[in-house]
Amino acid sequence: MVGILVHGDNHFIVRGPSPDREVALALVWHWSIIRIGATTPAFLEKWRISTREFREDLEWAVVVPGETAASPAVAQLLDELAARGVAIRELR
């Protein structure tokens, strides 16, 4: 499965199942902070950032609140996904 994980004005295209709240928050934290030499925790190994995907293949979307709003391009993509019937989960 492929989806998008949005956090404020940052986003990740992700291969893996739609994450629950705990995992979505852990992924955002893990991928947003550069830690040289750090390893991925075992419970996050089902997900990985993908750099080559088609927007038509996105099957899920999770939005984690951030200090800033999503970029206009990501907001447009979320609108397109919603119009296609993809459920967009907004975490609070």
Please characterize this protein's 3D structure:
The chain has 2 helices and 5 strands. The chain is of the alpha/beta class and 92 residues long. It has one domain. It has a 5-stranded mixed β-sheet, sandwiched between helices. β1 and β2 form a beta hairpin. The longest helix has 12 residues.
Q: Indicate the overall shape.
A: globular
How many individual helices? 2
N-to-C span = 24 Å
- Order of H and E elements: EEHEEHE
Specify the helix fraction band: 25-40%
Point out poorly predicted stretches: none
Mean pLDDT: 95
Give the count of structural domains: 1
Radius of gyration: 13 Å
The main β sheet shows up as: 5 strands, mixed
Number of strands: 5
Judged by helices, strands and strand pairing, the structural class is alpha/beta
Strand order of the largest sheet: 3-2-1-4-5
Please summarize what this structure is.
This protein has 92 residues and is an alpha/beta fold. The protein is 26% helix and 24% strand.
Topology overview:
Layout: E1 2-7, E2 10-15, H1 21-32, E3 48-49, E4 60-64, H2 72-83, E5 88-90
Parallel strand pairs: 1-4, 4-5
Antiparallel strand pairs: 1-2, 2-3
Please tag this protein with its features.
alpha/beta, five-stranded mixed β-sheet, 2 helices
